[in-house]
Each structure stands twice: as C-alpha cells, then as structure tokens.
Please model this.
Amino acid sequence: MDNGFSGLRPLVIGIGGGSGSGKTTIAQAVVSGLSGVALIQHDSYYRHQPHLSFFDRTRVNYDHPDALETELLIKHLQALKAGETIARPTYDFTLHLRADETEPVDPAPVLIVDGILVLADVDLRAEFDLKIYVDTDPDIRLARRLRRDMDERGRSPASVIDQYLTTVRPMHLEFVEPSKRYADLIIPEGYNPRAVATVVEMIRAQSGSLGPSIYSPS
Model:
C-alpha cells in the first residue's frame, strides 16, 4: 500500500488528555482528513499479565503509568522512524489481556500517538515533534467514559463509577493533568471542527510529503 512514505523522517505527534476528553476522536478526525497518517493508541500497549487471575486483573490500576509497556511503544516509534513496519499489540479490554493477534503498522509521513499518559512520560515525550493536550471538563469526561465502557467493554455503571473514583480521577490529578504543561497546543472542550482543521493545517505546513487536506470544518 502506498501511504506516501518516502523514507524521510516522519512527523510524530502526541495527543494526550484525560479519559473521555475527546483526544481519540480528534486523532481519528485528523487521520481521516489527511493521507499518509498512521494512528497508534497507547492503550494497545497495556501490559500482558496472564499470570494474574481475572479478578486480580480487574483490580489493576490501569490509569497508572506502570500499567503500560511504554518502553515497547518507544521502540516501535523508533522503528517506524527508521522505515520499519511494526507489529502493534492488540488489547482485549473485556479480558484485560493482550490478544494473540498483532496489527501491522507501516511507516508513514505522520505518526499520531494518543493516550491519557502520552505526555506524562519524559522518554515518550522526547519522540514527539508536536505535543497536544485535549482539555475537557471532568463531568463531560465521566459521562463519555460511562457510555464507552458500558457499550464497548460490557461494564456496569457501578463498576465504571467505582473505577473512576478509585483510580481514574486520582491518577488524572497526579499524572494526566500535570502533563498539560508540556503541550505545545491545548485544545479546550474536546472535539471541535475548528481545532481539527488547525491541527491538520499545522501538519500540512510541517510535512511537505502530504497531499492536500480533505478536511473541511463545518
């Protein structure tokens, strides 16, 4: 598949923000608006822990940086920068385990990495040319997380709220919110077409190998 990659060093963008902030929606809109963009989600790199029982896996603090194999993500970004295809892990959120299958990701002129903690890790931040933080009010983020985890991950409202109060909110305050200071660009209130259009134009300005934008803000 011709993704426009010419062997030049790709532009690497990190998009962070709290759970339910809209960062993935923004990242996907940017991918849809430009050719030659590959999206990698930090969530795919949750550690594989089959030695734990299912009950124990449900008790893991998945909002702490230690829950993620960020060192593997960094290696994969470096491989993509070198023009190599990677085998990205896939994660089963219903079992809290990595699936056996991996997803090939080819080198591309632009690489976007999104996740709640992508700006919190100093070594991962060093891989980014542009750092974006999506800043959304807590009540909106909680409502979105409730809908997502119930619809997509088969969780009960009580379990989602319990997780939010015991790990999501404390870890957001300890790790995610402070990472905002490292952002080059802060997008308020989550997804909006003008913000996406701005990011698309920034990417086009910095990456001459991309074609024209197909994104039109409403």
